[in-house]
Amino acid sequence: MAPKASSSSRKTERADKSFLWTRKDLVGIDELSSEEIVHILDTAESFKEVSTRSIKKVPALRGKVVALMFFENSTRTRMSFELAAGRLSADTLGFTAAGSSVAKGETTLDTVRNIEAMGVDIFVVRHSEPGAPHMLARKVRGAVINAGDGPHEHPTQALLDVFTIRQRLGRVDGLTVAIVGDIAHSRVARSSILTLRKLGAEVIVVGPPTLVPSAIAAMGCQVSHDLDAVLREVDVINMLRVQFERFGSQLFPSVREYSRLYGLNADRLARCRKDVLVMHPGPINRGIELTSEVADGPNSCILQQVTNGLATRMAVLYLVSQCVA
Amino acid sequence: MEQTLTANQVREAIDRLYEQVLAHVPDDVPVAVIGVRTRGETLAGRIVERLEADRADLPVRYGVLDITFYRDDLSRRRGVPLVRATEIDFDLDDTWVLLVDDVLQTGRSVRAALDALADFGRPRVVRLAALIDRGGRELPIAADFVGRRVDAPDGARVQVRFQETDGTEGVFILTQD
Fold first, then answer.
1. Closest CA–CA distance from residue B38 to any residue of chain A (Å)
2. Domains of chain A
3. What is chain A's alpha carbon radius of gyration, rounded to the nearest angstrom?
4. pLDDT tier at A150 (50, 70, 90 boundaries)?
5. Above 0.85 for ipTM, yes or no?
6. How far apart are CA A253 and CA B111, in angstroms?
7. In CATH, what number is assigned to the domain containing residue B140?
8. How many domains does chain B have?
9. Which of A106, A317, B39, B71 has most Cβ atoms within 10 angstroms of its Cβ?
10. How many whole angstroms separate alpha carbon B84 and alpha carbon B69?
11. CB contact under 8 A, A22 and B66
12. Closest Cβ–Cβ partner in A17, A48, A59 for B70
């Protein structure tokens, strides 16, 4: 059993008005205090309003350049960051590893330094190597935002998830959240566990023993291998995508068996609390971790997560941009 | 820190400001009173309350503008404070807008507020009401209605305090460090 959330975390549900953000980088949730997390969420709240205007744009980052450094592929995170930067009036610069100088053997640091020399202010970095954004943050003058580093962290996804939870359920503190699926290889799971624990939620990670390392309990969460056993006690179920293309069937007997044991379907949903929130970071394997009925049903907030991703990323871009010397 | 206006003097300044507004508020166009956060919001709220009492025939809209994203002097700070949402849930097209701020100095806040307003529509007229004009303009901007002029040394900060936000009423001059 995870330790109970301390009552002092309750005060962090809304930010202290006098709190000041001072980081030039967002490389992980691990480094952040609960006050910093709440500051990002509250700032994102203000940016949501911008998206409701007829002119969905503010000049906060006018004249700044954001480089989207995707050493590893991504569609939605990249588009979300690109649109977020656009709504802040920043210029964006695209980069994909395939066909670039990286393919010619240039190191990550050299690549980033060369692009920085062109006058870039913020780097949004996705990299297969855990810690790559952290290394860059120390070496470059510009701001660095981690958009996913291997299986390590994906802070903006975790932030938009708690933003959505807070929006739908009114709070994070005191909730019980199940994260189901491939915990071992998931940066979303790691960042989410850290965020939820810092904001005072209980976390139960659920999946087959091959995909849930027992050491994960050290992050302050419960571990379960039986989804049916936890359904009744959770306020939120976050269904992770199983990366079949990466692991094939080495880690579980078959896709069908995985789906039967760990998939969320109408029958399982009926055994949850009536207002349980169903989340998924996307892209969904329909019919495997989620049936279409559940993914598109009233408990699902999957598309809301995508919408909120924009406001959350605008908030992060804005905050770090103000701290670049 | 020196108190330059007492609670009574603040009330007189607000009265003076309000009388000018009341004399100029039009009958034939929609009226919107928009306060610039934080103390312009409080002041705008008080003006709306009085307008509603004196001109019950006139529908008055009330909005709040957060100009942080429109400022040009953001990076001169030590950390990033919380930005709050702008609350203008109506169209500004063809309205008579009264923009309300507590202190007018450089004009940069007003410039930012005008840019922000433009993103919400095209008002027929924008008028500026400032409780305190302390001089020191850096841009060609002037208030249409002023509660009171205050002399303060260069480099000093003129701060208005309201019951709602500060628990007290008065105008203070803060000298740096």
1. 12
2. 12-153+309-321 (3.40.50.1370), 155-305 (3.40.50.1370)
3. 19
4. very high
5. no
6. 65
7. 3.40.50.2020
8. 1
9. A317
10. 10
11. no
12. A59
